[in-house]
Write a structure and sequence with these properties.
6-stranded mixed beta sheet, alpha/beta, elongated, single chain
């Protein structure tokens, strides 16, 4: 493989080709003869030359480029192995190993990287070599160890083979030790701050999402960038830094707080070698983890497929686990014969078929839900819908209101995001009103992924059938005011912002007194503690007033309708 040879004369190309005939002793960095040939050629063409050498001493590729531009095979490396080849290249202007050389060594997991200084008249000078160090090595500040430079005639004296064997053995031993202790995926979180006032809150929320999904957060990074890089968002330098952190912290997952496009995710994954997720994928994964009922599972799968569709280039084999037709082995009808469909077309067909199936299933679920709603309307029982930011304590409050402390009436209430995904109704009692149906809804979140919002829209629209909304706010959480505003924006998008609403400032016992006082004044909310059953009497009184107001308004409308009917008759 001969790369980047534009502008060279035939004689120079022939000399480069002759490098493939050079063999060095296995386990060595190079030979004095190869070093002399490289220095002479590099001086002649006045450019850097890189050769890739495998562990058997064979030259695999020759590139007229620096270490970062060298032609490297596309190999899938084992977690505990190095690449299996090392890079030997020239520095026509002299100097030791550059930052680019060391970055290539680390990111490509090379056995070693070496640079030959080219002196006047094309004579080889000192040879500089570096190799990786095992993660967590004591006394090493960098990811690599730089050896003392040696003259070119001593280039074959360093036993690289023994060093590589010892290094891989150490990496494997450390990996086995970590694997024995590791029971969850270890994640590094990245939140980009473009000047938002709540960037730190978003990073903490991303950490809570990762914890809920089952990951162990080992590092959180807030990256300030006014303008995002088109391909990688944060730039190659920051990605290299994150890769280094993942190497030392044994992290296998990189989660971004921003939504990544398909091309961006692929480019970041190629640059880091890590599994890449964004906030949307994380939320979808949590929904899939917590989905219990038939309707919830259908809606989550629908949202996942809509999100995955533009990202599944060539992933048809994976889709067979989801569903879809395998097609016919026959010749096909007119217009389908020929060389056959491409992989992408098959992917799209499977996804589209599955999407149509799920949408049809959800239509049937919607019909049954509408029948239940009509049944409640005929009973003329007031309905209170409990809404709020995820993990604000809605389910705990529902249990406290309905005395559903034990199964099967007890509603799942966990200190996790999106523990409840389907509307759950329980009957309670409010003094002065009588029986009341309380409905717990799916938790809201700022910047709700559009695919999820579309999938759960029918469920969220059920909020509109309530007489009163009970908006639960976790007043002890950082940024309680921004979370309240985020819920209000979603309610406004659904057309429910003007409904009668009572605000419950939950977890008041753990809130900062100044913050609590400010939120009471700003929202007119009732301080409560659903977990400790504090303030529930005041909250029920406020709900009774709101429900009574709605009933009086409905009674007035009915009376007005009867009067108009009488006048008409």
């Amino acid at each position: 493989m001969l790369g980047n040879t534009s502008g060279l004369r035939p004689a120079q190309l022939k000399s480069l080709g002759n490098l493939y005939r050079r063999r060095i002793e296995p386990g060595r960095v190079g030979s004095p003869e190869l070093a002399r040939n490289l220095a002479e050629l590099s001086h002649d063409i006045r450019r850097e030359i890189s050769v890739l050498i495998d562990r058997r001493g064979r030259v695999l590729s020759v590139s007229v480029a620096d270490a970062k531009g060298a032609e490297l095979p596309d190999l899938r490396l084992g977690e505990n192995r190095l690449a299996g080849f090392h890079l030997l290249h020239t520095h026509p202007r002299g100097g030791s190993l550059s930052k680019g050389d060391l970055s290539t060594l680390f990111l490509k997991r090379l056995d070693a990287v070496s640079a030959i200084e080219v002196r006047n008249e094309g004579q080889p000078g000192l040879v500089h070599t570096a190799h990786l160090t095992p993660p967590g090595t004591v006394g090493e500040e960098e990811d690599w160890r730089i050896l003392d430079p040696v003259p070119s005639f001593q280039i074959d004296e360093f036993d690289l083979g023994a060093q590589v064997s010892a290094l891989e053995e150490e990496i494997a031993r450390a990996a086995r030790t970590r694997e024995a202790k590791k029971d969850r995926e270890r994640a590094i979180l990245v939140q980009i701050d473009q000047g938002e006032f709540d960037a730190e809150e978003r990073l903490e929320e991303l950490s809570e999402l990762a914890r809920t999904a089952g990951a162990e957060v080992v590092h959180k990074e807030l990256v300030y960038r006014r303008h995002l890089k088109a391909g990688t968002l944060v730039g190659a330098g920051k990605l290299e830094e994150l890769t280094s952190k993942a190497y030392h912290l044994d992290a296998d997952l990189l989660i971004f707080g921003q939504e990544l496009g398909p091309a961006q995710a692929r480019e970041i994954e190629a640059a880091t070698g890590l599994k890449i997720l964004d906030r949307t994928q994380l939320i979808l994964d949590i929904f899939a983890l917590h989905a219990q009922g038939v309707e919830s599972r259908l809606q989550v799968e629908l949202a996942q497929l809509r999100y995955m569709k533009p990202r599944l280039l060539g992933a048809g084999a994976q889709l067979s686990r989801i569903g879809g037709s395998a097609g016919s082995a026959a010749g096909g009808s007119i217009g389908t014969r020929g060389p056959g469909e491409t992989k992408l077309e098959l992917d799209r067909r499977r996804i589209n078929d599955r999407l149509a199936f799920l949408e049809k299933q959800l239509e049937g679920v919607a019909v049954r839900r509408e029948e239940r709603r009509k049944g409640r309307a005929r009973n003329d029982v007031p309905v209170v819908s409990i809404v709020g930011y995820t993990n604000a304590g809605k389910s705990t409050l529902l249990n406290a209101f309905t005395h559903a402390a034990e199964e099967p009436r007890r509603v799942l209430a966990e200190n996790k995001l999106f523990a409840t995904l389907r509307p759950t109704s329980r009957q309670g009692f409010i003094e002065g009103i009588g029986p009341v149906v309380f409905t717990d809804t799916v938790g809201f979140i700022r910047d709700l992924p559009k695919d999820l919002a579309r999938a759960f829209r029918a469920t969220l629209e059920e909020i509109g059938d309530a007489d009163v909304l009970l908006h639960v706010v976790d007043v002890a959480a950082p940024g309680a005011d921004t979370r309240l505003d985020a819920v209000n924006r979603i309610l406004e998008d659904l057309g429910f912002r003007e409904m009668p609403t009572v605000v419950a400032l939950n977890k008041a016992e753990a809130a900062d007194p100044d913050v609590l006082e400010r939120e009471v004044e700003r929202t007119g909310g009732i301080p409560v503690s659903a977990l400790k059953s504090l303030g529930l009497t005041d909250l029920k009184d406020a709900l009774a007033d709101a429900v009574a107001g709605v009933q009086r308004q409905e009674l007035a409308l009915r009376e007005e309708a009867r009067e108009r009917a009488a006048e008409y008759r």
